[in-house]
Every structure is written in C-alpha cells, then in structure tokens.
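INPUT
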Amino acid sequence: MTMTIAFMLYPGLTALDLVGPLQTLTGLAQLDPRFRTVVLAEDRATVSSDTPLLLAAGHTFDEIPEPDVLIVPGGIEGTLAALTDERLIGRIRHAARTAQVVGSVCTGSLLLGAAGLLEGRRATTHWAMRHLLERFGAVPVAERWVEDGPILTAAGVAAGIDMALYLTARLAGEETARKVQLWIEYDPQPPAGGIDWDAVDIPSYRPITDALLTSALAGHPRMLEHLTG
Amino acid sequence: MTMTIAFMLYPGLTALDLVGPLQTLTGLAQLDPRFRTVVLAEDRATVSSDTPLLLAAGHTFDEIPEPDVLIVPGGIEGTLAALTDERLIGRIRHAARTAQVVGSVCTGSLLLGAAGLLEGRRATTHWAMRHLLERFGAVPVAERWVEDGPILTAAGVAAGIDMALYLTARLAGEETARKVQLWIEYDPQPPAGGIDWDAVDIPSYRPITDALLTSALAGHPRMLEHLTG
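OUTPUT
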C-alpha cells in the first residue's frame, strides 16, 4: 500500500511554505516507493503565489479527497482570504477525518484552526501571527514544529523543511531522513547565523499584522472581528 | 532605477532550487522597492518540476532578455537534458553579457558551464556532481556558495537560500538581509543536525551519478562523452 502525502495548493500562498516540505517529502518518495507525494487543488488551473512564480496542481481534491497525510501551506493575503473560503476549509475538514497526519506550514495553521482542528491543541505558526492561534482555541507554542496527536504544525515559511525532515524520520526512520537531507543538501549556513530571537520585539510588529488582517479581510468583517476584536 | 533579479524556469528543474532563492529575494523586493524579482521562461506554458508541482513563468526571455541578476536553478534529468538545449544555453550566454551577477543553484552551475561562463573560475554545485565542473574548465570548490567575479554558484538544492541571503546582504546591506531572514523565519533546526560530511563517501555515489548522466543524455552522446569520457 502506497502512502499518499498530499499538499494543498490555493491562490496567493507562500511558495516556499509549499515547496520546502514538498521537495523534502518527494525526496522520501524517490528513495522509498511506499510513499508518493501529490499536489491538490480545486482544479488544475494555474494560481498565483506570493512570488512571481505561478503554480499548478497535478490532481484535484475530488480525485484524492482522503490522502494519508495532508499538508497545508500558509501565506499572507492569500491565506487570510482563504480563512473564509468555506469550500477550501471544507476540503481540510473532510481530509482530516481520515488522515493520519494533518500538517501545516506558517499561517497554514490558521486554516487548520478555521477547520476546527486546533481546539485545545498545542500548535505554532509564523512568529508575527502566533497570537492569532488562541482565536481558534489552540495553545500557541514558540517551537520550530509542534506535534499534538495527528496535528503537526510548523513555524514560519522555512520551518516547513525542518518539519518535513521530522515527518520523514517518523514515517520511514532516521536513516532515510538523513539520506533525504543529504540529497537536498540541507546543511544550512545562513550568512548571519540563525535568528537572534532576543533581538526581535514581536509585539512591535502587531500594527503590521493588524494592517495585513484588516486589508485581507476587508470583505469579511466577521472573520476580522474574530481575529482582532 | 529598479534592479531586476530574474530566475530561469525550464522543464524538470528541482523546485526548491528555484523557490528557495526566489522567496528570499522576493522578500528583499517586498522590503525595498529598488528591487523586483521575475521568473523567465521561453513562454508562459506550465512546465513540470522534479516534484508533482507544476510551474509557470510570469515573463518570457524575449520580454526581459537582459536582467541585472540572473539565477539558474538546477535539477537532475531536466537539467542534464538542458545542457544540450542550445536555445536555453543561449539565453544564459546572452544575459551574462550585461548582468551584474549570474548565479546558479545546485547543478544549475553546469548550465553556466555549458554557456562558457565557468572557464577558469572557482565554482560549486551539488556534491554528487562536483567533479563535473572540471569538464567546463571550472575549479570545483566544496563551499556553500562561491563568488568569483560576476559568477555566484551555490551548492545543492537548499544551499540556494543561503546564497540568496548572501546576495541580499551584498545588494542591500546586512540589516535588510536579516529582516528578510526573520520574515521567512529561516532559523534552521534540522532534526538530526547538519550534514556530517566525514560520514559521506562521495566517490561511492559515482556510479549513481554516471547512471543518471547516461540515462539523461542517451540522445546526446557528445555531451555524455564530454562529461564522463
């Protein structure tokens, strides 16, 4: 039996939220035929990302409604708009009934929250949006990735790669995860080192976050009130 | 004057080679309007990647033939096949005449080599293909990224993010690069730590590399002979 690891595609998402873990878990599928990765969307039309790259899925949700693993990428405007897309949220809710793992990257966890999957669960998201998790009944955690039952949430953008390597090790063992890491040459050397969190005044970014929310949810006052009221 | 940072799209490339630096440098463009990123291909048709995600460019090479920066992603089959795509190689050669920086990720450096840009230059690529750089007159270097004049090459796949942060700092300063890094939350925590290179027997992968080359270049005996003969 092949395990299907599905990635959700929707307009305006952050490209690296999707591609980081997709590349990692496709590396797993290339090494171990017990796994396959797919990208799911409502249809095969090309959609925008938050970069100048356009993206398209290989399959529709109707074709693969119940993957074994579902991973939901995040973003800014596109993801905040998706919070009120009942069809998309319904796809997540439906898949979560049977999936072994429902994961997210960055603000993708807010979409899991909108689907009702974070109630009482520890979860994480992009650092600038972390306080919003409480609005969905979650317990916000400042970790690179957080696993609570079937829910596996990663911090912002690039954290999806770390989470995907963790998931690779969980599904196929640490030796396989190390092989995938070697193949994608994930031996990070940020020129300025890691992030110095002590130097980041997270509350000072709150006006920026609020402005993003107000702009993205201008047509959805109830969701805006839910998140900022 | 806006500086145009262009990414080359072609069929079969490694998605993360493209999206890692694209997300990073688009973060720069979001912070600093002196920069913009674009994705260039022969046309706007959807092309495959080495994952189940399909990709499309926002512009054609004809529309933007002379970007200020050109970054060429790599891959396996798709990139090896591209080595003999004279039109694609010609696009690189043309852009290199006027670009301030011509960069590559992973085996994208082999395409720079095929365009004649690596002659006598220090360069890097994916660890499993590093020996091939000599076939293009380059001096192979085992570093995360290598800058030699206008040529900036990164190691395999994920190394493109580190290279892009370096380039961000060079173009816009270290403070801006740190802001981009914070926004994409690039604070890597590989679950098993970094790669232990002492445990990697690179020559033992040579038969795998040779098999990939033989398969991808089956219809191009001269290039195959050039690389393996």
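end of record. Chain A has a mean pLDDT of 97.
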